[in-house]
Design brief:
235 residues; alpha+beta; L-fuculose-1-phosphate Aldolase; 8-stranded mixed beta sheet; 10 strands; globular; binds zinc ion
Length: 235
């Protein structure tokens, strides 16, 4: 994909995260690694739903601007840390989706095996400890989780996902917010049933066959079996 196509795709994904309500006003940022030491990213102070390719900023892995009229976000630091820790990653998406952000504020990680598809595609979503915006504190806490996960919640802030291409990183953000939304509703119903450890083991095999890496929830091995979802046990 040439650089202009990458910039257009960033605009497309920016519109998606804005239209879906994953960001408010000028929040959120997106980046794509286009070469060993080159990253194209969204500008600061612009709504992600109203960007044009010309607004994109090209930086090196130290965050120095190589090309572009506008400035990158101070949150770019956490994207760059992801690329440094995970050379296989080509795209990072940061947003403030409402349900995921609520979990980030409540300090509750998305680490329960409640949805089979989320176990396969998303895995465990931990919480990276709070840091002051714009400082190295946030990249430092993100770095602890990057190798073993494909996304995380930023404590009292929002969510971050990364993948081998931009659409994959965006879809992880969608799955993360969907999982947070369903977790929220299930908590309201007061019955958070989890998949059993044996069911999770089956899902891990599927995940491995799909070449997805990173930690998954453990599943529940409850002695009374009451909160376990395992059809085999009901036969
Ligand atoms: Zn943010």
């Amino acid at each position: 994909m040439n650089h202009h196509d990458v910039k257009e795709e960033i605009c497309r994904v920016g519109k998606l995260i804005y239209d879906k309500g994953f960001v408010a006003a000028n929040d959120g940022n997106i980046s794509v690694k286009v070469a060993e030491d080159r990253v194209i990213t969204t500008p600061t102070g612009v709504s992600k739903g109203m960007m044009t390719p010309e607004m994109m900023v090209t930086v090196n892995l130290d965050g120095e601007v190589i090309d572009g009229q506008l400035r990158p976000s101070s949150e770019l630091k956490m994207h760059l840390r992801v690329y440094k820790e995970r050379p296989d990653v080509q795209a990072v998406v940061h947003a403030h989706p409402p349900h995921a952000t609520a979990f980030a504020i409540a300090g509750i990680p998305l680490d329960k095996a409640i949805l089979p598809e989320a176990v396969v595609t998303l895995g465990t979503i931990p919480i990276a400890e709070y840091g002051t915006p714009g400082t190295e504190e946030i990249p430092d806490s993100v770095a602890k989780y990057v190798k073993d996960h494909n996304g995380l919640l930023l404590e009292s802030h929002g969510a971050l996902t990364w993948a081998k291409d931009l659409m994959a990183a965006y879809f992880l953000m969608e799955s993360l917010e969907f999982t947070a939304t369903i977790s929220f509703y299930v908590k309201q119903l007061g019955a958070e049933r989890q998949l059993s450890t044996s069911r999770v083991a089956e899902l891990r095999e599927i995940r491995e066959r799909m070449g997805i890496t990173g930690k998954t929830p453990d599943g529940l091995s409850s002695p009374d079996g009451r909160s376990i979802v395992d059809p085999k046990e009901r036969r």
